[in-house]
Design a protein that fits this description.
With about 475 residues, the protein is mainly α. Helices cover about 80% and strands about 0% of the residues. The chain contains 16 helices and no strands. Helix 2 runs antiparallel to helix 10, helix 6 packs parallel to helix 8 and helix 11 runs parallel beside helix 14.
């Protein structure tokens, strides 16, 4: 059996292997999002009634910062996934082994640096976010920040598994960890009454379980690369290649989440007076969780398209990449319609999963009605980003992220806060405006590059242009 027969991404049917790869990615992302969502659900239902809105806002606001940090880590890990996928597609075991060694070095430094930043800056982040309870938010951030070594390690290991075409093991690991997190949340909040402290400790403990399981499995598996101590260093050329592929995606995620942080800050002080702020902030905290879940499917499209494209670039399968893109865009369009309808008409029902507070549910549904436009096109836009990243066009990913966040989303949201009678629905539409701008940029770039035959590396081009 030759290598292409072993790897369904490189030969045979296209859509079915993509779907089989994407579904575990989607489910793993769903369970990963459940970490902080379960925190909010347990706090919303079992915390002290006198402080439940403040605790809700603290967990929602703090977890938004942690989601932003995690997305940055995941974006950088996608650089490892893409570069590793190219070497796997080219059947270069030595190169793949050096990619792994470089990635371990890069992310070890990153984990230490991020931990230090979170421990020092936690109270300032809480103040910047206009958190109703700075003390509670700071506690949540510092505990979660102390566990960033586990968050980083898990995302890197998941990226490695996906780079070799295995999306099932990350799903297994995060599924076990999610069960651990739920059990610990209930114990620390309902039995120990630790509230915000309890859910933060539970989240980090669950991530540690994921890392331990991933490490044990990697040591026992037969892999298309070697993990040796002497290879763990910054290999010349490869470290830069990983960063070149990962930094634009990480920066894109940072910019996107930073713009959501601005929205969160505006939402925390939206309304006619201070009496309304806690309710609105609590409602938007629920929205943070719901929109995180809404982004799970688009993110799975990005990750799957990036791995598929990278492996076929390494193998030189031009036509196969283009067919895969068409299949994924059609599927993403249908998913977008379904997500938009769910946000438009099912906001109250979804919000009620997290809390019984009627005021919080009402505010959460407001935002989702505006956010529906974002859901409509986001899956298609992220599919294109995965395609561009797999082809090596990381600069475009960076440019559209800058334009979408700093030229469109943040200015519009900051402008909205100056108008009277602005609701969370308007903020949702302001959020969606950036995705519309990014989709326009991506579509134009695809048309130009396809017309000029400059989308793929020179050895894959039909007209021989360099």
């Amino acid at each position: 059996m030759n290598e292409k027969e072993k790897n369904p991404f490189l030969a045979g049917p296209i859509f079915q292997p993509l779907l089989k790869f994407m579904i575990p990615v989607l489910l793993a992302n769903f369970l990963q999002a459940m970490y902080s969502a379960v925190d909010l659900m347990v706090i919303g239902r079992f915390a002290d009634a006198a402080t439940v809105q403040l605790a809700n806002a603290a967990v929602g606001t703090g977890s938004m910062i942690m989601v932003m940090v995690t997305f940055v880590i995941n974006g950088l890990a996608m650089g490892t996934t893409v570069v590793l996928g190219q070497y796997i597609g080219a059947k270069d075991r030595t190169g793949a082994s050096k990619v792994i060694g470089s990635a371990i070095g890069i992310f070890a430094v990153l984990a230490v640096a991020l931990t230090m930043v979170m421990e020092v800056m936690a109270p300032y982040f809480a103040l910047l976010m206009n958190a109703p309870s700075v003390e509670m938010t700071t506690v949540y951030l510092r505990i979660c920040g102390g566990g960033l070594i586990f968050i980083t390690a898990y995302n890197v290991m998941s990226g490695i598994f996906r780079g070799i075409g295995n999306s099932k093991l990350p799903l297994l690991f995060v599924g076990i960890a999610c069960v651990v997190n739920i059990a610990l949340d209930l114990f620390t909040v309902c039995v120990l009454h630790w509230d915000v402290t309890g859910v933060a400790v539970s989240t980090i403990t669950a991530q540690a379980v994921s890392v331990i399981l991933s490490f044990v499995m990697i040591r026992r598996m037969s892999l298309p690369f070697d993990i040796k101590p002497e290879l763990i260093r910054f290999h010349e050329g490869l470290s830069g290649k990983i960063l070149q592929a990962g930094v634009p995606l990480a920066f894109q995620d940072l910019l996107t989440n930073l713009s959501f942080v601005v929205i969160n800050s505006v939402a925390n002080h939206l309304g006619p007076d201070a009496d309304a702020w806690a309710g609105i902030a609590s409602g938007y905290s629920v929205d943070n969780k719901l929109t995180t879940f809404a982004m799970i499917i688009p993110t799975a499209f990005l990750q799957s398209m990036a791995v598929f494209t990278a492996q076929n670039v390494g193998a030189g399968n031009r036509e196969r990449i283009q067919k895969g893109l068409r299949y994924m865009l059609v599927t993403a369009g249908g998913v977008g319609v379904a997500l938009a309808l769910l946000c438009e008409f099912g906001g109250s029902a979804m919000a009620s999963v997290f809390t019984d507070d009627a005021e919080t549910i009402g505010y959460a549904a407001q935002y989702l009605r505006g956010y529906a436009l974002d859901c409509l096109i986001c899956a298609s836009m992220l599919t294109l980003l995965g395609y561009f990243n797999g082809c090596g066009h990381a600069t475009l990913v960076l440019i559209q992220g800058l334009v979408g966040s700093f030229v469109v989303r943040i200015p519009i949201v900051l402008m909205l806060r100056n108008y009277e009678n602005v609701t969370l629905t308007h903020l949702g539409l302001g959020c969606a405006s950036a995705t519309v701008a990014s989709m326009i940029i991506c579509t134009g770039y695809l048309i130009v590059k396809t017309k000029n035959d400059t989308m793929f590396p020179p050895f894959m081009r039909r007209n021989g242009k360099t």
